[in-house]
Amino acid sequence: MQANALSTKKLNVYYGEKHAVQDVSLDFAEKQVTALIGPSGCGKSTFLRSLNRMNDLIPSCRVTGDIWMKEHNINGSETDVVALRKHIGMVFQRPNPFHKSIYENIAFGPRYHGVKKKADLDNLVEESLRKAAIWDETKDRLHKSAFALSGGQQQRLCIARSVALKPDIILMDEPTSALDPISTSRVEDLISELKQDYSIVIVTHNMHQAARISDKTAFFLSGHVVEYDETDKLFMDPSQKQTSDYISGRFG
Amino acid sequence: MERSVNMERSYNKRQEAKPHIAEEWVGKIYTFICIAFLVITIFSMVYFVASKGLSTFIVNGVNAFDLITGVKWNPDIDIPQFGALPFIFGSFSTSILAAIIAAPLGFCAAVFIVELAPKFGRRFLQPVIELLAGIPSVVYGFVGLSVIVPLFRDLFPGQGIGIAAGALVLSVMILPTITTIATDALSELPAGLKEGSYALGATRWQTIYRVALPTTMPQQMTGIVLGIARAFGEALAVQMVIGNAPHIPHSLFESTSTLTSAITLSMGNTAMGSVQNNVLWSLALILMLMTFVFVFIIRFLEGRKKL
């Protein structure tokens, strides 16, 4: 029995009147990759964004239910959202480096969480870039603009940026959908390496990607989780008809 | 076979299109006339100001260097002195001081409009701020003269008139420009950048200070330079509160002049073609050249726009 990094109990998300995520209860195992798949608009991204309380930023959005991280329910109003996001990092669909140097992009987060000494920051920057497998490409131009990097490199930089906070969990919202196939495969390799140290939850449109990199997969449909199982089991032998219809390409 | 039919059809279409040629030409000629009118106006104004302004040096033999660096302005004595440095100093100090006052205000107002109260801000606050831009400058001058000048007279040594009063009036006048541009810049900021910052555990204010402000800096600077350019060219409101003494003041609350106030004040009292008149054109030439410099700075900043 593996420990859970995060688990949700009857999580509901509403956008105004729209009930976008309905009674979702999922457990995310520690140091595993969990994929969330499903057609567009099924609520998988919305669900993911609830996990680090990013939906707080949307005024019309309301999230009810529990999100347990260890023994804390982080969906409560008393949760320090800023501190929480140090433990749960996030990588977005489009690479979104800041208009700063590569070094400053990585140092951005740690600076806010008390890392002040230059030597510490230097080490942290190198360590994070190494972990994100982008050190060799960037070590000679750490102080050049992050925008000189290619899209795929920018995305790995964004991964390095969240790694720099030493999070427990990294959420990824379709991290390769804006990348070319080669960059995509590099990011996928990276995800497989990162899971040694982090628990990863990844939303993806690409079912092959889910099959390649994830340990468990949850299939979302119109705000519900239809099926949640070991990835191999879910793709080879789904127990629900809707799942088999979706993965065989009959809709979605 | 089918292809030839298609070709024929498209040929017919072109036949039908023929009446549009007249329309095309009318449109081209009309728009050309409009732009030619604009260009001719601009160039003739530049030429007019330059020829008048330069004749001070060429015809009247005033030394251009002395004009720019001289501090004594006595156009009506036997050996007239034309030192315009006090005016240049007055123009720069009032407009830059105005920008220093207005820039933080404008940026913070924009942050409130975009980040804190987007609905209320966009619908109510922004129109109100833009309303400021429509108030005639004589009203600003009048308010400055009857409110700010007495207030400064009570609070500080001196008559209340001077650079401080001028800069304060100007800062309110250029506030809409700076706020509007700052608001546009902040709302154009890609949502992804802000989310990226929040996702790293930055607070809202850290995000504004460390991401939104640096990323939009070129546009913010454009707004500030536009504001300075407007303040630099403003004559009436400044003239009413600055005192119009032609010397470099020793404090912010001492009477002084700007290029614009010197021109408007003396233009009616000089004979066309006299050196006293020509030297005012030289001041106008300096103003115009400065405006060009501001325009170049804005162009340069917009080229650097990062988004």
UniProtKB/TrEMBL annotation, chain A:
Coiled coil: none
Pfam families, per database record: ABC_tran (PF00005)
SUPFAM superfamilies for the chain: P-loop containing nucleoside triphosphate hydrolases (SSF52540)
Presence of keyword ATP-binding: yes
Residues spanning the membrane: none
Entries under CDD domains matching the protein: ABC_PstB_phosphate_transporter (cd03260)
Residue span(s) of domain ABC transporter: 6-247
The protein's name in its UniProt record: Phosphate ABC transporter ATP-binding protein
Species annotation: Paenibacillus terricola
Originating gene: pstB
